């Protein structure tokens, strides 16, 4: 019989796996802090998908063409699917969807702040696809290589679908820009409203991001907030140009020397307020989720009771 | 154009690769890289839309509108569940059913418009709104031909389970027969719909049994929901003159002719679930007119007010 490895040996094995850029799998030993960080991050991501159904779901019943209605309904349905994969990935770390949902509706776990902004016109459906899904993908593409196996694999699937959504959003805006003056104005107003919140999606500036260093050392996070934000701006500017909209930042310009765009800073005070729960829709989004969850309790109980009775019947048969 | 245009590389995105940018190709013109539904195509493109010999094209269009509106209105009600279902799996399943019915509605509306362009509301000259959208978004409530069963507001999950079960069972029987339609388009729409509705019926049937045999509360809610829907149900299987004419011409199905087989299926589900058939009279019409005649409940115009609001604000808009 071999002696069971000591904590130090386990830690050394874990560090070596991370060092080789290999995946950690659910049955592998992992430091408690790593597990906790992952649960926090994956749960937050899952919750974001589920809460994210609301702002766009807001326009399903008012979509102005049957084709757009189908595309939007399918997209919001995909978000529910993403939530499912991510909750499953999280369950491999020893928690459950039910437990995580309780934490979400109790306000004990967070979701992406962008969903605390309202959707005020149908153009927002396109803008969310283009800018919000676009920023989300910038954040998420590096996560396909994250060190925890189930998370990385879920992210590969999610990123593929998100890039469809992003194209659909951009294409909606393109179509609207070819339409009437009123439609073009609607697109511009929507872009003006979502540009800064989209930039906030990368998180606070690196100097103010306390968790980044440890997450990068563990291979959970692969790029800093500011790196990703820069990349997003550089990629978005030519698209805005092709679309024919202006981005609402007077400081935005190409910097030849850096080979990148200079741009202004979002209102970080507003960001903090939204993170603290004081955003335009925080209370509304949570109340909606809580109501749906509570309204469905009797259905979930019925399904469990039915399954139990069926098992008992089988056993006595 | 300017220095900004140096970024895109027009290669397919590879999200598993750090350098694979999701934006790659976004400005490209390769349409194969675009998602489903982002190109507008005539839903009947490539299908022979000639009205069969001896068939009155007005009657055919009216019949298609009835079938289309049932699907369109019920799809809308089901889509209201989005982000409100008891669990993620149910959210996804109800959205699936809504999407299937929306797909059926689009084909049938397009068929109605192709058979008789006069049914399509007239929009300002030069409007880019396609016929299916003109029909969905620019008709008044009294021009809708759906049965009242599909338009009443959603209740709880039991109400939706019972409604999907009754709707899918009846429509499946109708479409199953419609696969033999002399109209090639209707036959094709029916063949596709049969597969979809079989799934809808099975899904609702499983939940019907689960709720009936689950807890006291779920059973109470299910029985109440069935009771509430029952008076509306006969309208779905009654013969309207348009359906009679369509059946006579060999292009449509008289729902009364599938009432018996629909009932057999329903009886099986009720028996297995131990739920009694409600003893409720059918909902009267007004001066004999009901949903198929354009006589609706108060709920429809309110539903349409929401559904049509953006489209109507932009009759020259393109989406």
In short:
The complex is a heterodimer of chains A (317) and B (319). Helix content of chain A is 66%, strand content 2%.
Question: Could you walk me through the main structural features you see in this protein, from its secondary elements to its overall organization?
Answer:
The complex is a heterodimer of chains A (317) and B (319). Chain A has 317 residues and is mainly alpha-helical. Chain A has a single domain, classed as Ferritin, core subunit, four-helix bundle (Ferritin, Up-down Bundle). Chain A is built from 13 helices and two strands. Chain A has helices at 7-19, 32-51, 53-57, 66-91, 97-105, 123-140, 149-177, 181-200, 212-217, 225-243, 268-278, 282-295, 297-316, and strands at 253-255, 260-262. In chain A, strands 1-2 form a two-stranded antiparallel ribbon. In chain A, helix 2 (32-51) packs antiparallel against helix 4 (66-91). By secondary structure, chain B is mainly α. Chain B has one domain: Up-down Bundle (Ferritin). Helices cover 52% and strands 0% of the residues of chain B. Chain B has helices at residues 57-79, 88-115, 131-137, 157-178, 184-213, 216-229, 234-237, 241-248, 259-273, 298-313. In chain B, helix 4 (157-178) packs antiparallel against helix 5 (184-213), helix 4 packs across helix 6 and helix 4 (157-178) runs antiparallel to helix 9 (259-273). Classes of the chains: A mainly alpha (317), B mainly alpha (319). At the A-B interface, helix 3, helix 4, helix 6, helix 7 and helix 10 of A face helix 1, helix 2, helix 3, helix 5 and helix 6 of B. Chain B: This is Phenylacetate-CoA oxygenase subunit PaaI. Chain B: Residues 1-24 are annotated as: Disordered.
Strand and helix layout:
The complex is a heterodimer of chains A (317) and B (319).
Chain A: H1 7-19, H2 32-51, H3 53-57, H4 66-91, H5 97-105, H6 123-140, H7 149-177, H8 181-200, H9 212-217, H10 225-243, E1 253-255, E2 260-262, H11 268-278, H12 282-295, H13 297-316
Antiparallel strand pairs in A: 1-2
Chain B: H1 57-79, H2 88-115, H3 131-137, H4 157-178, H5 184-213, H6 216-229, H7 234-237, H8 241-248, H9 259-273, H10 298-313
